[in-house]
């Protein structure tokens, strides 16, 4: 009986030793930091108000691709990028793409005045508690996130984009 | 009780105590692990002798079960004692995902409407279901997690017209968080107090916030506006970190104060940090304990003349 027990016992002991020691020696693969780290995950959604005080949510854009831009009025790159976002919104109007600007941390009046000064007509939401910035791991402003029709984060960008970069990103998502 | 069984029980207890009372420095000392390894080896070596002397397959199986259970637990205990990383406390801002080496990714949730309601931090790991961590300890295999409350400061900044201003933390891991985790400390008037800082880019201001407990606030403030409540001292500098005149103010009980061209308000709230304590693998210890107990029961139920051989 001895030989029938000893080898399975040794094999089992070795397996246990490997199982027990594994967590101490195997380093997990680092998750990507910043907004790109959310790619492939359902987009965090918060109920907000727009710059006119109306209740809004990303849920209302289910079925459309969403280009969500996080911005603030004190941020010069945001100001530089906004007109290109407006051009993108105009070019893609009626083609299943929604462009949304989410102001981070400011008052609705400031957001409205800023948008008016640049002739922005796409929806402007006001995230006074900076929830989107935190939930999307924004490293700075502007941050742009692209969601698919099911509300899943496809791509995210830290820093300003040119119109060509926006178009390329949207085309890549649309082609999926 | 026989020498073999007593040694097995002592070794078992030596490993179980690491899970029952986790985080004791003794578990990582050389003497503790040498003793544990010696006990396990003694049980295995002694078990071999007992096995040869035993009569019948039932007693032999019981001896193998005890020896194998102790050996497995000994490996788990010594591996934890010698190779486990240091215990640590993980702090994260609401909404932040913090990757912890060898543990996984901890997701710190954003508080709901009721900011005082308890929030659960979630651990995500490959090949495991998400684990929600509360104030009760959760064993996650080779480590134990527990949420412990810490004081954080939720700031709101407005300009003198009442417009809300963006708060940023460029030096922290969360850029757009108005929640200060107060991880740094300094001594003020003989008191060791936590502090943090944040930027208000629209106003070109850098603000330092220092947190005082209610007792400390009572000592510092001649007329505490909110007695019995924590207070926050704000010191407002310009964007080049130069102090501004008359820009040091104390706010207690969430009251708004004015300094450096800003209206500042601070709510001191409780938010969890996660205590990570390493322990022997729970699955191995559970199986090992079951084997030892099963072996003990079988040996105890055996006729006296068979049991007498287990010495």
Explain the overall architecture.
The complex is a heterodimer of chains A (176) and B (311). With 176 residues, chain A is α/β, with parallel strands linked by helices. Chain A has one domain: Glutaredoxin. Chain A contains 5 helices and 7 strands. A 7-stranded mixed sheet of chain A has the order 2-1-5-4-3-6-7. In chain A, a hairpin with a 4-residue loop joins strand 1 and strand 2. Chain B has 311 residues and is α+β, with helices and mostly antiparallel strands. Helices cover 32% and strands 32% of the residues of chain B. Chain B contains 6 helices and 15 strands. Chain B has helices at 3-20, 30-53, 57-83, 214-220, 282-301, 304-307, and strands spanning 88-90, 97-100, 104-107, 121-124, 131-133, 138-139, 143-158, 179-180, 184-188, 191-200, 205-212, 231-238, 243-252, 257-259, 262-278. In chain B, helix 1 packs parallel to helix 3 (57-83) and helix 2 (30-53) packs antiparallel against helix 3. The interface between A and B is large, with 43 and 46 residues.
């Amino acid at each position: 009986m001895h030989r029938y027990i000893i080898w399975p016992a040794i094999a089992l002991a070795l397996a246990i030793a490997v199982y027990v020691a594994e967590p101490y020696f195997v380093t997990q693969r680092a998750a990507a930091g910043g907004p790109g780290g959310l790619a492939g995950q359902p987009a965090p959604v918060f109920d907000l108000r727009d710059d006119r005080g109306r209740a809004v949510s990303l849920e209302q854009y289910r079925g459309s691709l969403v280009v969500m831009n996080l911005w603030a009025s004190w941020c010069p790159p945001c100001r530089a990028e906004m007109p290109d976002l407006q051009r993108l919104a105009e070019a893609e109007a009626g083609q299943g793409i929604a462009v949304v600007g989410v102001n981070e941390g400011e008052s609705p009046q400031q957001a409205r005045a800023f948008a008016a000064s640049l002739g922005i007509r796409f929806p402007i939401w006001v995230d006074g508690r900076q929830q989107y910035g935190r939930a999307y791991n924004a490293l700075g402003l502007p941050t742009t996130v692209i969601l698919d029709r099911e509300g899943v984060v496809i791509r995210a960008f830290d820093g300003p984009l040119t119109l060509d970069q926006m178009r390329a990103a949207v085309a890549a998502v649309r082609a999926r | 009780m026989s020498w073999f069984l007593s040694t097995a029980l002592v070794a078992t207890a030596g490993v179980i105590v690491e899970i029952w009372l986790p985080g004791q420095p003794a578990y990582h000392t050389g003497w503790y692990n040498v003793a544990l390894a010696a006990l396990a080896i003694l049980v295995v070596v002694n078990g071999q002798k007992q096995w040869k002397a035993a009569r019948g397959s039932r007693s032999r199986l019981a001896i193998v079960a005890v020896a194998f259970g102790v050996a497995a637990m000994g490996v788990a205990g010594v591996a934890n004692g010698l190779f486990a990383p240091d215990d640590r406390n993980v702090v994260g801002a609401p909404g932040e995902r913090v990757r912890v080496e060898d543990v996984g990714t901890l997701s710190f949730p954003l508080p709901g409407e009721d900011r005082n309601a308890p929030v659960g931090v979630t651990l995500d790991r490959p090949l495991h279901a998400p684990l929600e961590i509360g104030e009760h300890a959760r064993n996650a295999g080779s480590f134990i997690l527990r949420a412990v409350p810490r004081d954080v400061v939720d700031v709101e900044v407005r300009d003198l017209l009442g417009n809300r201003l963006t708060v940023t933390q460029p030096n922290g891991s969360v850029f757009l968080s108005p929640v200060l985790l107060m991880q740094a400390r300094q001594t003020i008037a003989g008191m060791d107090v936590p502090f943090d800082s944040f930027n208000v880019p629209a106003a070109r201001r850098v603000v330092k916030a220092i947190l005082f407990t209610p007792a400390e606030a009572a000592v510092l403030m001649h007329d505490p506006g909110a007695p019995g409540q924590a207070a926050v001292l704000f010191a407002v500098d310009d964007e080049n970190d130069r102090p501004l005149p008359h820009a040091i103010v104390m706010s207690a009980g969430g009251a708004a104060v004015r300094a450096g061209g800003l209206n500042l308000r601070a709510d001191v709230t409780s938010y969890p940090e996660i205590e990570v304590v390493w322990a022997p693998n729970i699955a191995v210890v559970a199986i090992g304990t079951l084997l030892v107990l099963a072996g003990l029961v079988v040996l105890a139920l055996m006729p006296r003349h068979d049991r007498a051989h287990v010495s």
